Amino acid sequence: MKKRLASIFVAVIMAVCACFVYCVPCFAADYVGSIETTTKSLVIEVTVNNVESVHGSYETVHNPSYEVVVDFVYSGDEPLKYWEVPGLVEGVDYVIISDEGEKIRIGILKPEIDYIWANAITGNNTKTPVKPDKIDTNHKSPDTGVCTAGIVSALGVGAVALAAGRKK
Question: Which residues contact 16 (CB under 8 A, 6 or more apart)?
Answer without folding.
Answer: none
